[in-house]
Amino acid sequence: MSTKWKVEEVDTCESTFIIARKLPAWTIVSCNQQTKGRGRFNRHWFGEPGGLWASYNLPIDPKSPRLWGLLPLVAGVAIIDALRPYAIKGLRLRWPNDVLVDKRKLAGILVERPSATMASIGIGVNVFNNVAALDGLTSDSPTRLADLIVGCPSVKKLRTIIADNIAENFNYFLEGGLDAIASKLESAWGESRPVVAITDTDRVCGFFVGVESDGSPILRRPDGSTRTVPGITVNRMKELI
């Protein structure tokens, strides 16, 4: 693992965010069981033993506060990169913060900004945990890494692989913004799918074809035109198939 990172391990906690926000950048907080984890819009995140439940703290420039909002995409690319050597069929990123295998959810990402100079990337990956118990309790059917590959890495090894890929892609991002990882993002989305982007005032339908440099989703309309939906306004983007 990159020498930048330091690791704090606990057995059980309410949320790794609670611990991580008190620690410096380049710290990873991980636990075996998370009792009050949460996802986007405060949805409950189940963090049972056997999964990777961790927060990765990164430094951010207080003069560029909006950049931290792009970190879910940076982290998504990092997870895809970390798992790419295992050749998982159907592995893909779903805007803005989920890693799926076909239509089943493998991992989720949530980013907090506990201070002006630090962001904390919360990552949950189903590895060996009992995902069968989650069927019907989550909006997406779950899957786990142990069922997808032979020779599944340990949770600690996966934590390290993801840490190294976060550091690498974060450095690219600092140097060139989202454009620096644009080709990785393009391949991470997988095939174009019909979606509806839901905002407070609108429902925009189209085929998801990628993102702008500010992370906003681009949809291709039935007439062939494209429309960018400002990412900050999107409450949910739902895949239609």
CATH class of the largest domain: Alpha Beta
β-strand amount? 35-45%
Helix/strand/pairing category: alpha+beta
Integer-rounded radius of gyration: 17 Å
Low-confidence regions: none
The biggest sheet amounts to: 8 strands, mixed
Principal-axis shape: globular
Number of domains: 2
What is the average of the pLDDT values? Answer: 93
Q: Please identify which CATH superfamily of the largest domain we are dealing with.
A: Bira Bifunctional Protein, Domain 2
The helix fraction, in percent, is 10-25%
GO cellular component, one term: cytoplasm
InterPro entries: aa-tRNA-synth_II/BPL/LPL, Biotin_CoA_COase_ligase, BPL_LPL_catalytic
Domain BPL/LPL catalytic: 1-174
Pfam families: BPL_LplA_LipB
Describe the structure.
With 241 residues, the chain is α+β, with helices and mostly antiparallel strands. The protein folds into two domains: 6-188, Bira Bifunctional Protein, Domain 2 (BirA Bifunctional Protein, domain 2, 2-Layer Sandwich), CATH 3.30.930.10; 194-239, Roll (SH3 type barrels). Helices cover 20% and strands 35% of the residues. It contains four helices and 13 strands. The strands form two sheets. Strands 1, 2, 3, 4, 5, 6, 7 and 8 form an eight-stranded mixed sheet that branches. Helix 2 (71-83) packs across helix 3. The N and C termini lie far apart (39 Å). One of its GO terms (molecular function) is biotin--[biotin carboxyl-carrier protein] ligase activity. Residues 1-174 form the BPL/LPL catalytic domain. InterPro entries: aa-tRNA-synth_II/BPL/LPL, Biotin_CoA_COase_ligase, BPL_LPL_catalytic. It comes from Candidatus Akkermansia intestinigallinarum. Keywords: Ligase.
